[in-house]
Amino acid sequence: MSRARPRNGGRLAVVGLGPGGVGWRTAAASALLAEATDLVGYSAYLAMVDAQVAGQVRHPSDNREEERRAAQALDLAAEGRSVALVSSGDPGVFAMAAAVMEQLDRPDRPAAWESVEVVVSPGVSAAQAAAALSGAPLGHDFATISLSDNLKPWSVIESRLAAAAAADFVLALYNPASRHRSSQLERALALIGAYRDPATPVVVARDVGRPGETVRVVPLGEVDPAMVDMRTVLIVGSSQTRTVALPGRARLGVYTPRRYPEVSAGA
Predict the structure, then answer these.
(1) Among 134-138, 153-157, 262-266, whose mean pLDDT is lowest?
(2) Considering the domain boundaries, does residue 68 fall inside one?
(3) Contact status, residue 60 vs residue 77, Cβ threshold 8 Å
(4) Residue 4 falls within a domain, yes or no?
């Protein structure tokens, strides 16, 4: 995926690493990482990039420094460098691609950024990876919602959860809990439970693609928030989601049929 850089500037590639090991990474993402003069990212995500390229400089930062990290990457690219700004999963799903676009949308953005070529290289998202490891729970319509209220009010999260649950979407829940946010998941599960049978299958996937990976299928009524943290993604089935015995696997598979039951006449 090599691209010619602008004459007076560099390139900023926002790269999705996938959920874990290099086996989940696209060839295009790997090529952009290898071409980069500089890697910018949250230190834990930079550690996922195992290959060391001679002369390549790494710029690690804390997890909550998204705005500064995006601006730093743009500044480096404006110096004529080839920069890879890394995200786990897909950079366009609750990640750094939006942070870069927010910086570019600033009315006071530096003039030097005008020479930078910005590209986004997609990756396998956590929900996609968890779905693949459990079967096909995203086989029909689904909604992806972050439970983090760091950047949006909890009231907005609740209204979206209620609307999506009432519409019978499968729900992929990101950022379900952390050391500082322990009550939101309990509240979310209670809200969803008002619309779903307690036996609804829930995929609880932690550290997907990394050492210690676990994927469990648990009935909605038995999900224990203690088993969930920020490295976990949950997929809550719809009314149609089912479990199935998969040959050669110790655990049940989960899938949502592609065909939805016909609505009765006059309904």
Answers:
(1) 262-266
(2) yes
(3) no
(4) no
